[in-house]
Design goal:
5-stranded mixed beta sheet; elongated; DNA-binding; alpha+beta; 43% strand; 4 helices; homodimer
DNA sequence: CACTTTATCTCGTGA
DNA sequence: TCACGAGGTAAAGTG
């Protein structure tokens, strides 16, 4: 079966595909377009991964491979958002035919990780040209909360003055360092969603470090839309404070 | 253009697709297969997301929609592993035609999140049936490290005896609780990859809690393949210990 | 490069 | 259902 394309001969087409292709035809399309197009490969396949960890898909089963020009390599199944196996960018895709079977090898250099896919039954293969959104922006992030507080510290507390944001310490970076109306140092840790014990622990770490280093009392305020009950008890037991703030209120 | 399928009439085909379809044809295929097949939709589209946060893809651009039967909904672009916009499962997909434009609405119930896609130019739409791997297993996880240490505590230290694993405390679960050759309690925290300040903080929290509760000296050992320099200083400053262990050595 | 943190994290597990 | 923590987290930002 020949490649079906939808543009003139001189220009690279945005879409090409093959249905039930021979391995050699599939190989040709992959090597032709893997560096410019997103490749979609549907068929019965087995796969293996070895790198930071190790795992195997021994059962031959219909799966979907998505490979992007930046090296992103994913094997998707019928459910879940995360691919079953993958290699993050930048990785390199090598395609070949072994004993008549289309074989894909995605190699990530560092850390060294390899995903190998064998596709004895190729049902469909497509090459599509996709774009990339520039200046992409998400609203309602933790950074938006921090900005809003820096611009208007009274969101947290009347009389609060901001000294620094992203204040670097040996134990990590403090979201906002401030001073209250009585001159106490205040460490503020923001979370865009419900705070748990980890968030409390993080704040406690900053407060402990700073109060030791500065040799004086330091307040710690956890700012989040909500806090789990266990985390709240934990927070209070260390004399830390909680201030409810909605990230969506920052828009 | 009629639907191209590749099985008998009585059986649902594994693969169906349309090239440059009319919106009505696309709509029909989506509604026919969205609950059983993974849908691939390629075309020029704009999109928006509102839910836990908010964002918009205003520029009309070739993108790829992947929708799974479990409600997974993803809009992929030319680069990166993560979709640009998405809804995690379980979500519900509604397709319609608005003013002649194919419109997809993915709705997640809780938290309420909505992704809306408008596709004025539909280049390709495919329905593929995928499988799901059962009994999937990854080797070299933190749990594997814990198992290996429980089976052979001398990995961590000669003379170490394991008292409990996943020992529940008010401040969290301790990976391994043990006793050293001198009778001291030992808290062991495992990490499968390089340990940072959070890991040290976590161990410190357990040790503090236990030494207070038991009113005696408690050792804390962080077990990981490596530790960041700052985290190591932090660890040592609290008298905690580090033991280098490779998760891959556990296989 | 190494290090640190965020994320519309996702995902599984256990109460 | 909620809470909690792991993840082959990925991705972004900084020194």
């Amino acid at each position: 079966m020949s490649i079906t394309s939808f543009m003139g001969k001189e220009t690279t087409p945005d879409l090409e595909y093959l249905v039930d292709p021979m391995p050699t035809e599939a190989l040709r399309l992959i090597n032709l377009r893997k560096s410019t197009h997103v490749m979609l490969i549907y068929g019965d396949m087995t796969a293996s991964y070895e790198g930071r960890a190790k795992s195997q898909l021994e059962e031959l089963m219909p799966r979907l491979v998505v490979s992007k020009p930046d090296g992103t390599f994913m094997i998707h199944e019928a459910s879940k958002e995360r691919p079953r196996l993958w290699n993050p960018p930048p990785s390199t895709l090598y395609a070949s035919i072994n004993l008549g079977v289309l074989t894909l090898r995605s190699v990530r250099a560092s850390p060294r990780e390899v995903v190998i896919v064998e596709i004895p039954v190729i049902r469909f293969i497509g090459a599509v040209r996709l774009g990339v959104t520039l200046n992409y922006r998400v609203f309602g992030t933790e950074e938006d909360m921090v900005n809003a507080i820096v611009n208007n510290p009274s969101i947290v507390e009347e009389g609060l003055q901001v000294i620094a944001r992203e204040y670097h310490t040996i134990v990590g970076d403090i979201d906002i360092l401030g001073k209250d109306s009585k001159g106490n140092l205040v460490v503020i840790e923001c979370k865009r969603s419900q705070a748990g014990p980890e968030a409390v622990n993080q704040l406690k770490r900053y407060v402990e470090h700073l109060s030791q280093k500065e040799d004086r009392n330091v307040r710690g305020i956890l700012v989040a839309p909500s806090i789990s009950s266990a985390a709240y008890h934990y927070l209070r037991s260390y004399g830390l404070e909680f201030r409810r703030v909605e990230p969506k209120g920052m828009l």
